[in-house]
Design brief:
By secondary structure, this protein is α/β, with parallel strands linked by helices. The protein has one domain: Peroxisomal Thiolase, Chain A, domain 1, CATH 3.40.47.10. The chain is built from 12 helices and 11 strands. It is globular, with a radius of gyration of 20 Å. The relative contact order is 0.19.
């Protein structure tokens, strides 16, 4: 009989450094430069030396991502991740990194992202093909022109049909995201919009008009996750990773059992269970919002309201910085920035809020106290994948 291997206690994991690169309209930088800028700023934010980094996570750039990006940054990691599951990539990779650090397979993992999606289109440079394949299962949908936005729009229509969700309720998500962006000096769009503005905009894919859809920007960001032993040497108070969950659903629309349920229903349940908290304990939520419907249905699936009640839940300013549940406090992908796979920005904003670094856009609890718990939930593809993290000030 083989001897029983020793059981090592799992280490706590904290985020000690975050940063964004130049964002919005960045015409004179490459994606590599934005990666480097964000990485340098996050490391400076942490107060730690780059020599502590032994893990690296990156996706979406380079032939051998993350090897090529790590080389560009002068890193030689012994733990790497290049998971690619769309917009939830960064929450999924953060979950992987947390497990690796807790198990002792890595000590300090840098997650970094950068994209010049807006500048590439402006300069008519070739960008990623969003037709999503003429081979494999997707080949049966491609001939019908079923684009990404159309997939989300069809799901939204199903929710409207089944639960009576209205266009005005969906528009409220965009209106409140823009109001939150008004207090974020780095947001790309800060001027207020109304429900009528959203409803009267040019149609993109029924029922989505332009303001139901995310903006396109340039930009990048970075997050440094470390084992608990490194926290005393960090420059700022840590934000602890309390729980994480991941899940996948479908790629072919015909294989999606229910258009009104996203994989966040699974990833959220796992994250909350592992963190030992409930949705009612959460002070703020950062949710992937490529389209207004994503916010509404993710709130349902994370358990902030019952299935079908998302429309009523988002009304009356609930998502505002001073609302019942502040959501996408930086303005989200609908107003602040969306350079492609935005998931890492959710973690950056959640950390800023928990640290009390959000300036005029800072969320406060009763009596002016800082928030204690935040959730960041990313969605990839067309509700194909989900990653959810629960973060807290107290480890």
């Amino acid at each position: 009989m083989l001897p029983t291997p020793p059981v090592h206690p799992r280490r706590k994991v904290a985020i000690v450094g975050t940063a964004v690169s130049d964002c919005g309209r960045v015409d004179d930088a490459t994606p590599y430069a934005l990666h480097a800028q964000a990485a340098r700023r996050a490391l400076a934010d942490s107060g730690l030396d780059r020599s502590v980094i032994d893990g690296f996570a990156s996706a979406g750039l380079g032939t051998l991502a993350p090897v090529e990006v790590a080389e560009y940054l002068g890193l030689r990691p012994t733990w790497v991740d290049s998971t690619g599951v769309g917009g939830s990539t960064w929450e999924v990779m953060a979950a992987h990194a947390a497990d690796a650090i807790a198990a002792g397979h890595a000590n300090a993992v840098l997650l970094v992202y950068g994209s010049t999606a807006r500048a590439d289109i402006k300069a008519r440079r070739r960008t990623a093909n969003l037709s999503f394949g003429a081979r494999g299962p997707l080949q049966f949908e491609v001939p019908y022109g079923h684009t990404l936005v159309a997939k989300y729009a069809m799901a939204a229509r199903r929710h409207m049909h089944g639960y009576g969700t209205t266009l005005e309720q969906l528009a409220e998500v965009a209106v409140q995201a823009r109001a939150n962006a008004a207090t974020n000096p780095d947001a790309m769009f800060r001027d207020p919009v109304t429900v009528d503005d959203v409803l009267s905009g040019p149609m993109i894919a029924d029922p989505f008009t332009k303001l139901h859809c995310c903006i396109r920007s340039d930009g990048g960001c970075a997050v440094l996750m470390v084992a608990q032993e490194y926290v005393p040497d960090a420059a700022k108070e840590p934000v602890w990773v309390l729980g994480a969950g991941t899940a996948v659903s479908h790629t072919t629309m015909s294989e999606w059992e229910d258009f009104t349920v996203s994989p966040a229903a699974v990833s959220g349940r796992l994250a909350f269970e592992r963190a030992g908290v409930r949705p009612s304990d959460i002070d703020l939520a950062e949710i992937y919002d490529a389209f207004t419907y994503m916010t509404l249905v993710t709130l349902e699936d994370l358990g902030f309201c019952e299935k079908g009640e998302g429309g009523a839940y988002v009304e009356k300013g609930r998502l505002l910085r001073d609302g019942g549940l502040p959501v996408n406090t930086d303005g989200g992908g609908l107003s602040a920035c969306h350079p492609g796979m935005r998931g890492l920005f959710l973690l950056v904003e959640a950390v800023r809020q928990l640290r009390g670094e959000a300036g005029e856009g800072q969320v406060r609890k009763a009596g002016g106290a800082l928030p204690e718990l935040a959730v960041a939930s990313g969605t990839g593809g067309w509700f194909c994948s989900s990653g959810t993290l629960v973060l807290g000030r107290d480890g």
